[in-house]
Amino acid sequence: MSSHVYEVALFGEFFSKDLPAILNRITLHSESAHQMHAREIVFEPFDAHYARERDPTNEPVLLRARKELLEPNAKWLLYSYLKPESVRVHPEATVRPWSTCQVIGDALSFASALGYVRRSQIYKRGYVFRRGTLVIQMFQQENVDPKTQKPMPAHQDTLWEVEVKTASPIRNTQETPLSQSVDAVLAVQLLMKGLLDLRRQDV
Asked: Keywords of this protein's UniProt record, alphabetized (predicted)?
């Protein structure tokens, strides 16, 4: 058995006009829902640029920092994904090894100390739903004001993005086989059929 822990996920996007119908269907089939406003910063190794020049196919492992802005005492969460498992092994859903840790204090300095530099940042605003072992995030990306670095409301035509994924890292064991989580995300895919196309994606 692998020592990795995994995330299982499906992704989709839709236009604003479809928001009420999609919101209703997901809310109806979820245990809880709340609003979300998160800041995410993506870091790459400080030598990633040179590594890409040497070998363009070699994508660096990115470090991501996420903070929920609507929770007053929220801590930064640092996480990193490895390359998704092959489509031959998991054709129906994205299965990727991931690691995560909570950082008390300055996550940005912590990432810098690990040898990472900031690559980009985004703000996401929308909704989070819980459904069993899954979390469903539905959001629009907000632009960042170059002067203040604060988020600006998304344009009304901005696409909504959806991520259906396991709420916490899972090990592929006999008690919790990955197939259970794949079945869980596929159940949401079936649930949304005709309204929202959820699919596997290599990211």
From this structure: Activator, Nucleus, Transcription, Transcription regulation
